[in-house]
Design a protein that fits this description.
With about 650 residues, the chain is an alpha/beta fold. Among the domains are: about 10-150 and about 165-240, Immunoglobulin-like (Sandwich), CATH 2.60.40; about 255-400 and about 455-480 and about 620-645, Rossmann fold. It has an eight-stranded mixed β-sheet, sandwiched between helices. Strands 1, 2, 5, 9, 10 and 13 form a six-stranded mixed β-sheet that branches. Strands 8-15-14-11-12 form a five-stranded mixed β-sheet. α7 (about 335-350) crosses α8 and α9 crosses α10 (about 415-425). The radius of gyration is 26 Å and the shape is globular.
Length: about 650
Amino acid sequence: MTASHESSSAARSSKSRLLSAVRAELRALHPNLASDDILQIPLSSLLPGSSGASAGSAWRELYYSLFQGAPAALAMPSLDELSDRALRYQTSGVTPLILANYTYQALRPGAVDLVARKAGDALSVKLRAGVSSADAFTRGESFFVGALAQDLFDYFIPRDGSVFGLHSRFILSSEFYLTNGDETVSNITVDFDDGRGAQAVAFDKVVDVAYPNGGKKHLRVTALSGGKTKTAELEIEVTEVIVPPPDEHWTGLGFDIGGNPATGHAWVYYGKDKGVKHTSIVDPIIISEGFPGNYSLFYLWWSLTDNAQGLAWSLLAAGRDVIILGYDNGTTYLEDNAGVVVACVKKTIEQRQGSAPLIVGGACMGGVIVRYALAYMESENIDHQTGLYFSIDSPHMGISAPASVQYLLGELAELDEKADQAYEKLQSPAGQELLLYVMQGYFFDPAVPSPLRTAFLGKLSSIGSFPKIPKKIGIADGVGDGTGNDVIAGSAVVTADVSDFDVNLAMTLYAAPGNDQVMLELKIDPPGIPISFTWPSCPFTIDSAPGSTEQYFGAVTQYIGGHATVTDCCFVPTISALSISKLDIYSDQALYENLAVVTIIDSDLDEYLWNTENARHMEITPSMADWLLQRVAEVDVHSIGEVAASYAQG
């Protein structure tokens, strides 16, 4: 990294480390703070977008604020720990409700100033004139309800709130009653806004809710605590998607490939032949979910029906048995989750009636994991009996997340709950194995690629890179004629200026290759010294490249405010989704090549389809759905031996 010689250690310090020090000073400032007292500090107001979060996820911001102010002695569980606890309910189709009942000490607005000390090597807290330490704080209570639904992401970007179906199941589990006091709660009622009014709810009892229609619903919880009736409300979004019950539900799927086996799960839906539903698996198609994995059945069914031109319904009507495969931890190593695919394939073969070849593939990361699994099985002489492999906008040659956004998330990760989530996904093993480059902080050079990706590519190469037996097809959501998106290379794509505690933070994010190598510029005043996050010799204009897009820049302004000149940028380059691996993806010449005029495209896939525009990642157009269904229909349903002979590539 390069930085001005005038930059002091304070200027180079991340905002998160600075605020951690501020929290410690404020705790010391309080005259009567007990060791287990929560000190809630309005530091999240530095990010104005936090207060504008949707009602469905606002409880997370509140909990995160309390968690940051909690001393170690309280052993308050993190949001990640709560999500881990909720997993066993979620995989059974039940959403736990969290009921929080906390007391805290809060810093009064305007009670303190942040001041520079020692020529700017740190920031210190000072009471304002006329304010005593006793007057600087006030006692408060926080009673709120939240839904521990499975987190939704636009891949690395966390979504606001969660979406529920017309038929939903909830549980108020005693393990999710959270408090830092001795008060219990009783006489609990919940109005689920389903037209039935308030109903008594007991701890640890599942409640089935049937909504008559979709739209925003307002849950209202009342409880008696400490002699007072307390009320909390939660807004959720209900859609009119009805998920049919699966015919089978598999859990604990796993196969040890490299000594660190992962686990997964699958939902099985039987297809129909001439209108008669199968009674077992006959003609299977396995569809793997994408990053970051562990999506709910509701979300995956919606993704394969309403969001995919009714693809799942069409497959079932065509006689295919649809097996939706998920990963218990989709952010672990791709090669470990490939073992989940191996286990699913083996179980499918064991339960299949007849000898119809399998069709196996996936969306985004799922396509890469399935590719690895089938290639591994062939390298180990494990019979996968697969006639067709497919991928939908899968990053066979890597995926992109803007350098400027990666840097910013790293600086905000300890301050904002959503930034924490996004940065954790970027830095996860799967994230680093997929990303073309990883920014790990101010003091580190960009990893182009990450050592984890280099190691993964080596393992993939050692097993043959792609399976050889099945026919291989793929879809790209980006264009093939070399036309980029609306991002202007090197331009300032996001500007923001936020303030609190008399501290102003100005930021500018630039598209690759940056403004004279600068990807992100921050200026904290005081002390007023700019901090530049650079990428020396950035090799390409990746943010502008042809390919599917994601709204990285729009998400930044949504969460922290400011202005974006463009919301979306390149996510999966077209040549990556088509696996034209002989091209150098770190080269603009390759990224922007007009494939439409190339006589022979040297793809690793046997057939492929690109889009007519650079669309959002995982957009399935009618022509894409028809193209995929036609290729599925062409698979020989008589003999895997015939399929192997027909599609073997050597």
